[in-house]
Hints:
The chain is α+β, with helices and mostly antiparallel strands. It has one domain (2-38, 70-135): Nucleoside diphosphate kinase-like domain (Alpha-Beta Plaits), CATH 3.30.70.141. 40% of the residues lie in helices and 19% in strands. It is built from 7 helices and 4 strands; from the N terminus they run βααβααβααβα. It has helices spanning 10-14, 18-27, 42-48, 58-65, 80-88, 101-105, 120-130; strands spanning 2-8, 31-38, 70-77, 114-116. Helix 3 (42-48) packs across helix 4. The model has no long low-confidence stretch (mean pLDDT 97).
Amino acid sequence: MERTLAIIKPDGVARALIGEIIGRLEREGINILALRMIWMTEDQARGFYKVHAGKPFYESVTRFMSSGPCVVMVLEGKRVINAYRKLMGATDYREAAKGTIRHDYATDIEKNVVHGSDSPESAAFEISYFFNELEIFKR
Length: 139
């Protein structure tokens, strides 16, 4: 079993897509081990996205991610990183496959509704950024 971090971004929360996204996760058989709603400060968003510091989108993504509440979740399942990334769709929603979250709901390359870890290493950092082990359900 593998774990990953999922975020419903401020645009997804503002558009009342939390239930729809959680429903899609559950229908795919992905387990949710932890969940909370947060509102990151810009400094917290910078810390979370520090791997992208210096890239052209860094400032705008950290401003966006601190612009409203997000829902952060720890997901678990067999090859869940790939399974969730497939369900999310391509980062650029215009290239996302039909039926993916980003194809169906994204309005912008940055306002693309969801985030997911891209590797086991990223997942470990990202999960620990928002949750400690006591907050994560054990199956």
